[in-house]
Design a protein that fits this description.
The structure holds 2 protein chains of 2 kinds. Chain A is elongated. Chain A is α/β, with parallel strands linked by helices. Chain A contains 12 helices and 10 strands. Classes of the chains: A alpha/beta, B alpha/beta.
């Protein structure tokens, strides 16, 4: 698949940047077009891979933002994006839409710019293009507190109703064990980028010397066609390096055939199973998925028809749906065999319920505090009988 | 957040000077020298190192009642002078690039006549002049400063708090430092809090934060208005920047879980310390409406788990969901710092105490006012009355133009009151 990828807000832009990094490291070419859109000048200075001219600052003329972000306020995030809609549209004029199969908007839902601005950007894209628009949305962790949960719960509704599919990423499940703040985010964003790119880059090449099991972009689009919220699982294993390959060749032909039919098939099925049972980007009940797709990516010599078939059968049972596609994505020089599994329209995702509960509580608390604000300030600065006068 | 600073009165001006000094010393850049100091006096004060001469304004230097010592504790006179000299003040403001700033911070000692009187007038003026948020950093008097100071401050709070976008209070009872001294460690500590808070998110560091606290975050945190309190704590650490080799060594030598736990605990306890000890004004933290925390220091010291649990702890402690948290990596810094701001705290015992004291003084003033002498105050107040009757009458007249419904209660005979209070204490 070929994508136009747009990061909105700080989290979104950083993830897009990591996607580009993963692509360049693994010699893929998924994102044919990128943009970073943000309300904070500081954050737009960060990316390493997103070209300068693809970074769009919005809201710099807004009195409340002034190029310094929106203070985690989802309302201002939306307001600012709406006000600069013309600028956003102008930026998208550059997208050579005939070169891409779909558009992916990446945003964090807990803050202000991504969660508020994201849906506005998606509206503009849906209006301008016929290609499907997907979102990757980062859900805040429980430890991030009430306000991010409230932003996310509200924003999620807008995202899911506007996009063709929403791929969820749960910060809680992915809370990195890394030591510093910087390392923590880096690690998490890299893991996510590996999953996304491995999955979506399948069928990205135009050369058609590919195997009959090759996945292509229409398969991915079909799987995502369900709408709703989706989740990605991933597993990878190192493939035997050349020295071992050489040893293999010294051994007898019959042994090699055995390995092909037996061990390689087992390996592929095992990999797909591991991917589904691994940490999903958004933990959810696998059987609640509407459709599923698995991409086996790696050197074609590692592929096995039998493996793909048994992986498909296993996934069919596991996801409790007949709408399952498993295919391969040949990467000649890759040192790794990996499986990325897309579970489309997962309807049981406990974290989303938790966020909603957290959000309801937060909303209530905020309203209570606002209701008594003036009165309490007045109480504080006024003596009991109001005997002390202001100076002016 | 880029700020324009306006210091009012001797103490306010001195504080501005200190803040600029800390800014320069710590390699931060949030005012870039965008500061103005003004005082009411006959002759300009000297001893400001960081504020250039053209950014010092003298108000009331031609006013007939302003003496060599300024307004001599007369709050109404200070307010009157500020009002009269507003054109002068506005002209001086032209030297500040306020529209390039994200906000204005007026600094004043609200216990002093000039800080309270002129401060209130100038806060009003600044709020009307600019769209940018206007914050006040206001010093509240200590017990030793006397009853008049309490009355000045209590009245100033009523003018300043509703007008300013937020009032950052600091309590001189908790921070008894001497702002007149150049090297006072307490005043410098206060200036450090202000600098750490407002400099976060400015692009003056070589490393970009993962989650920068930008001016919009601060503005949003301070949005409810009211009174705010700043907490701060720091601890010494090894700087990151010893070249690539030092970094690599650090990387390899600290990958065990033990280290991680220690680092996380260090960060969490630092934030707890910032929130618990020596807030600029002691307050019931759970009465805060919003809070913001910035963790600043060498990137290798900024433990993610520690910061997360600190943030969570803060949410419980302040009993609010509106908490913004950001990092501020400073590779060459040898301190790990946490600064916390509690916005709109409404349970502040010191302010209640100031009000009680102010009421006593005001009541004493009324009793000794021309027609209100009673036997109870006559003896203690007689000495003051002998010399100050004239000015007392003027003050009483002045105060009638304020709130009509309270005019009877408020005839603050400022200097006399001080005498009364001081005498009463003896």
């Amino acid at each position: 698949m070929k994508l136009a990828t747009i990061g909105v807000g700080n989290a979104g832009s950083k993830i897009v940047d990591r996607m580009l990094e993963f692509e360049s490291r693994t010699d893929r070419n998924l994102c044919r077009h990128v943009h970073a859109i943000n309300t904070a000048r500081t954050d737009l200075a960060k990316p390493d891979y997103i070209p300068e001219e693809r970074r769009v600052l919005i809201g710099d003329t807004n009195q409340k933002a002034k190029g310094h972000g929106v203070g985690g306020d989802v309302e201002i995030g939306a307001e600012v994006a709406k006000a600069d809609l013309d600028e956003i549209r102008r930026a998208f004029d550059d997208v050579e839409i005939h070169t891409v199969d779909a558009i992916l908007v990446v945003a964090g839902l807990g803050g202000g710019s991504g969660s508020g601005g994201g849906p506005v950007v998606i509206d503009a894209l849906q209006e301008m293009y016929d290609e499907p628009v997907y979102a990757l949305g980062v859900l805040p962790g429980e430890y991030e507190g009430g306000r991010p949960a409230l932003n996310a719960a509200r924003s999620l509704q807008s995202f899911v109703s506007k996009v063709d599919n929403f791929i969820g990423f749960d910060n809680d499940a992915w809370r990195a064990r890394e030591q510093t703040i910087e390392e923590g985010y880096e690690q998490m964003n890299r893991e996510l980028a590996a999953r996304l790119v491995t999955l979506l880059a399948a069928g990205e090449t135009d050369d058609s010397d590919v195997a009959e099991n090759a996945m292509d972009s229409s398969d991915i689009i079909r799987t995502l066609d369900t709408g709703g919220v989706s989740s990605i699982g991933y597993a990878a294993t190192q493939v035997e390096d050349t020295s071992e390959g050489l040893l293999d060749r010294w051994s007898s032909d019959s042994q090699r055939v055995n390995r092909d039919d037996g061990s390689q098939a087992t390996k592929i099925k095992g990999l797909v199973r591991r991917a589904v049972n691994s940490r999903l980007t958004l933990p959810g009940e696998v059987s609640s998925a509407d459709r599923a797709l698995a991409v086996i990516s790696g050197p074609p010599s590692e592929f096995s028809r039998k493996g793909i078939e048994s992986a498909r059968q296993w996934l069919e049972q596991e996801a409790d749906t007949v709408e399952v596609l498993v295919g391969d994505d040949p990467r000649e020089d890759s040192p790794r065999l990996s499986a990325a599994v897309l579970l489309s329209n997962v309807t049981e995702a406990p974290r989303i319920d938790q966020i909603q509960n957290q959000a309801v509580d937060a909303q209530q608390k905020i309203a209570e505090q606002e209701a008594v604000r003036e009165e309490q300030i007045n109480d504080l600065i006024t003596d009991d009988n109001n005997d002390l006068d202001p100076v002016v | 957040m880029k700020l324009a600073l306006v210091g009012v009165g001797a103490v306010g001006s001195r504080m501005v000077d200190r803040i600029l000094e800390v800014e320069a010393d710590t390699g931060r850049a949030f005012t870039r020298g965008n500061a103005l100091v003004c005082d009411i006096a006959r002759t300009p004060a000297d001893g400001f190192d960081a504020v250039p001469e053209e950014q010092r304004v003298l108000l009331g230097d031609t006013h007939e009642r302003v003496t060599a010592d300024g307004v001599e504790g007369d709050l109404e006179l200070a307010a009157d002078v500020a009002e009269t000299d507003l054109p002068e003040f506005r002209r001086a403001l032209d030297s500040l690039a306020i529209h390039e700033s994200d906000g204005v911070l007026l600094v004043a000692d609200l216990g002093s006549a000039t800080g309270s009187g002129a401060g209130s007038v100038l806060v009003d003026e600044l709020q009307g002049l600019y769209d940018e948020p206007l914050y006040v950093l206001g010093a509240l008097p200590s017990d030793d400063d006397g009853g008049t100071a309490a009355l000045n401050a209590a009245r100033a709070l009523r003018s300043v708090v509703p007008t300013a976008d937020s009032t950052l209070a600091f309590d001189r009872e908790t921070w008894p430092g001497d702002p007149e001294r150049d090297d006072d460690p307490e005043i410098r500590a206060l200036a450090t809090r202000v600098a750490t808070l407002f400099a976060a998110g400015e692009l003056d560091s070589s490393v970009v934060a993962e989650n920068a606290m930008d001016s919009s975050d601060l503005i949003r945190t301070l949005e409810p208005g009211g009174v705010s309190s700043i907490g701060y704590a720091s601890t010494d650490v090894e700087p990151d920047e010893r070249g690539l080799f030092g970094r690599l060594v650090a990387w390899f030598s600290r990958s065990t879980d033990d280290d991680e736990a220690t680092d996380a605990a260090k960060v969490k306890s630092l934030v707890q310390r910032a929130a618990n000890t020596r807030l600029t004004i002691p307050c019931e933290v759970s009465s805060a409406e919003r809070a913001l925390v910035v963790l600043s220091g060498p990137p290798s010291e900024l433990s993610r788990r520690g910061f997360e649990s600190a943030r969570q702890w803060l949410e419980q402690e302040a009993d609010t969901v509106e908490i913004l948290a950001g990092d501020d990596p400073r590779p060459r810094s040898s301190t790990l710092e946490a600064v916390v701001i509690f916005s709109n705290v409404t349970d502040v015992p010191r302010i209640d105490a100031l009000q009680r004291r102010a009421l006593d003084v005001q009541a004493a003033n009324e009793e000794q006012a021309p027609n209100g002498d009673t036997s109870e105050t006559r003896t203690t107040a007689s000495k003051a009355n002998e010399t100050r009757d004239a000015s007392a009458e003027t003050d009483a007249a002045d105060s009638e133009v304020s709130d009509a419904s309270n005019a009877n209660d408020a005839a603050p005979l400022i200097e006399d009151a001080e005498a009364v209070a001081d005498d009463a204490n003896e």
